[in-house]
Design brief:
alpha+beta; Maf protein; 6 helices
Length: about 190
């Protein structure tokens, strides 16, 4: 059984679509480091959660990367949403000629065993290895639209609709997390 480390049951439902019933929610508030790299944040969280769960864990970290702002807010997306807000991020982006952006997720897997993969994020000498899987979906920042989703979904448009305008199934079919989960599921099945 894989422990998906999250307080969000929606993430677990999405993971179950890729990993069948091999996933259960593990509600653990791991210490999140501040870093400019999603992989470093996810790997640190996976190592911490692995020690707490005493078994295999999956942790993800995600963010909105706005091209006009050199990828900001990126790993700081949750903080920016809480402090600046979705509407103000739109207003800051609106005058830019290039409003392209991407949602990215890095999924980190840790089970304490040596990993034979090129996806390994090495820790220190006494740190367990972590396998990393990235998902990305490209889009455009637009004026807020839609009532669904969460976070920056109302201002992120992909193929003509914002994530907030999509049903959960439509969003999951193209989501950055789903793409990372698909990559992980294939690798995990071969282990």
């Amino acid at each position: 059984m894989l422990n998906f480390v999250t307080t969000n049951p929606g993430k677990v439902r999405e993971a179950t679509a890729y990993l069948d019933d091999a996933v259960e929610q593990f509600d653990f508030d791991y210490p999140e480091i501040q870093a400019d790299d999603l992989a470093a944040v996810a790997a640190h969280g996976a190592r911490s959660a692995y020690r707490a769960a005493d078994g295999p864990v999956v942790v993800d970290d995600a963010g909105l990367f706005v091209d006009a702002f050199d990828g900001f807010p990126g790993p700081y997306s949750s903080y920016v949403e809480d402090t600046v807000g979705v509407e103000r991020v739109w207003r800051m982006t609106e005058p830019e000629s290039d409003r392209s952006a991407a949602f990215k997720t890095v999924l980190a897997y840790c089970d304490g065993d040596p990993l034979s993969t090129d996806r390994v994020h090495e820790g220190g000498d006494d740190e367990p290895p972590v396998a990393l899987f990235e998902g990305r979906v490209d889009g455009t920042i637009v004026a807020p639209r839609g009532d669904g989703g969460f976070g920056f979904d109302p201002i992120f448009e992909h193929d003509g609709a914002t994530f907030a305008e999509m049903s959960t199934d439509e969003k999951n079919a193209v989501s950055h997390r789903g793409r990372a989960l698909e990559s992980f599921a294939g690798w995990y099945a071969d282990r």
